[in-house]
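During the first year of the project, the team set up a workflow for recording each protein of interest as an amino acid sequence followed immediately by a discrete structure-token representation. This format lets reviewers and collaborators read both layers of information side by side without switching files. As required by the reporting guidelines, we include two representative entries from the current panel. The first entry is reproduced here exactly as it appears in our internal archive.
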Amino acid sequence: MLDKNQMRNARWRLVLGEGSESAFGGCLSDIDEKRDKALGYLYSREYNARNVRGGSRQGSLGDSQIIVPEWINDVHDLFPQKTIERLERDALERYEIQELVTNPELLQRATPSVTLLKAVLHTKHLMNQNVLGMARQLVRKVVDELMQKLARQVESPLFGIRDRQHRSYRKIARNFDVKATIRRNLRHFDTSRGLLVIQDPIFNSRIRVNADRWQVIILVDESGSMVNSVIHSAIVASIFWGIKALKTHLVLFDTNIVDVTADCVDPVEMLMKVQLGGGTDIGKALAYGQSLIDNPRKAIVILITDFYEGADPKRLLGTTHGIVESGAKLLGLAALDEQANPNYDKAIAQRMVNLGAEVAAMTPGELAAWVGEKIR
């Protein structure tokens, strides 16, 4: 824990930037080092511009185009909203770092990635219509790749599990039992050709998951720190939406609530409506989710948030108690992405657990398995 003097030195070190190390020494924490790097990426241009003799100032950054998206994501991870707005304004107006938000050709050449997708979501409010159109195409490419990657993980637990005690005459690929088929057909091995001849393929039957009439209500916190979870929530909700035995709702929230259930059919449209940052009223969102419940005994409410409540937590905790007491399942997710590394308010999360909610951090596949277990 830094004392007040160390904190003051760290702030001045960040303000004065490179060249002030001798005055303030090693006063920066690990996170301050990251902040210093992000600030230096932008404001070191001030020193470079002053040291250039002759010629005109150039807005082009050459190979720095490659790391602009990473810088944008770092800024949104490391600084509060007002600081983010100032940094973005200086980047665009003072230093002319405009590649990502004004150059459609750059976006057209860019390699689709989750990093670039996050940067687009952070800066789409700064884009003109032409660039926004290109950004939308980029988002669709990344989303399509994620859908292909995650669909099998999410669908498998919900379409039923294999019953290895019973065989099936329904010969479809996902029921094929490779190991049992090899064992059964070893007697047909052709030694002269070195081939195993499959004369009797084995297919397992499946235990049908009783998902009829189950309702899945997904509430997603739009705060900037939740961007990975927002992206994966859109994908998961879209896959759930395609499982007709489930009735899926998707709701985005900060201090306001936006029901984007109609956009579950197209996660790109949902993501382009995301407004990252701002305050958070988790209790208000959870109360809205509770109002959507048709039959509590057949309802699952999934609250995806960092649990840092901006409003009075009494409403959040009271609604938690009401949902659990009604018989509905309530799962709080501190993270939903492929790493499932949570950063959340443990005190609020623990109080919800004490009231009967479950709290975890999950990958999309783990979430689908959890849902599948609850609805069996």
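The second entry, processed by the same pipeline in the following quarter, appears below.
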Amino acid sequence: MSDEFNASIENLFDPALSKATRFAKGTEIRKTTPRSAHQQWNIPEKRRDPIEILIETNIGRIETLLPIRYQRMMESPFAFFRGAAAIMAEDLAHTPNSGIHLQLCGDCHLMNFGGFATPERKLVFDINDFDETYPGPWEWDLKRLSTSFAIAGKWRNFSDKHCKEFAWHTADSYKRHMLDYSHLSALQIWYADIDLSELIEMGEDEEIKKFHLKRIKKASEYTAHEKEFAKMTYQQGPRARIKDEPPLIYHPTIREEEEVLKAAEKAHILYIESLSDDKKILLSRYKLHDIAIKVVGVGSVGTMCGITLLMSATGEPIFLQFKEARKSVLEANLKNKSKYTHQGERIVIGQKLMQSASDMFLGWTSDDQNRFFYIRQLRDAKVKPVLEIMKSDNMIDYAKSCGWALARAHARSGDPSVVSGYIGKGNEFADAIAKFSMAYAAQNEIDYTKMLEAIKEGRLPIAPDV
């Protein structure tokens, strides 16, 4: 795509233009990149070996944890997909591009959505993982999300027809809600959120509704930090300590512990500086008591992640989660370079751009080894999707919910009028995304098999008893 065309895309965001004019500009882009082109998945002539990409992403990770990473990815093609964002990022760079850029999640799959409590204690449905967030073509997020439904559907043994429907409904919901947001003001979009209880009530499956409403009630009834404190700590003299559960939760060695705690205290001070003054005052009433490494997720395994326990003088706990912030997998596949030198800041700002409400303790920091981190509460009334109990209708409802949440997130930093103009009101775009999703799901299966072969050959580390 020419530089002149990219420059014209930037001009589409001129607020002086009417919504109708911007919608028409979006429609014009179809002449350069037809909507039907998005159905294409053609293997690039010089596609890199996906195993080489995985090995490259191991650089800088904790080597002793890498076997856990690949053990988790071995579980299914869907688990592999969750840990292989870098592979798909390179592949997406070879697909047709609308040229319309906005803030992306970067690792937009169906398990990175769910319910959580806002600082006002309202439960909302939204995206909840932003490690790879970066500005880029809006359709990259939608293609990864829709593909995740096709792959998860295959993992759950749904038919190909159902899997394609899941992907289609994801894209169709995105289209319909983006059109709705195109009629709102920028401020109205910024205020918009998705109430989790109302979303669940919209479903028609009474059994699944009761299940989720019970989970919401349970999530709302307790103070997360106090429950986690009772479950995750023990008393060692005057000091509360996080329980070890190796290899998933563990402390540094006794020899390293004092040094690690000192480094953590320095990093904690830098973290506090990244917060607003009111949060600084709040956290000044708590002192860092303990720190432990915690293995999380699939794609994050091997990065430096963990939990810190803060205690007030009167014994009230707060658990914070820190996650190492590395370069987004999207950056190497886009011409635009990040404006943030601190990767933790990149993640925090991207999250605040996309989420309807972000964690009140969301901030960033660094350590003495020049590693970047971002920090948030460990858990706060989180409600995660339970795919194992979903029937096909439930999967369709969930696909619609995720498509809606993604449209809302994109509408905050992008121009919904331009995006809606490009998508149009018919089914052509959703049809194309559904076809792409099924084609890429097949590619993911091939790459998954290559990973299994690489593990057998010893190219990727795995626990000896697997």
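For the second entry, the following points were noted during internal review. Residues 428-457 form the longest helix (30 residues). The chain has two domains: 3-220+388-457, 223-377. Both points are flagged for discussion at the upcoming steering committee meeting.
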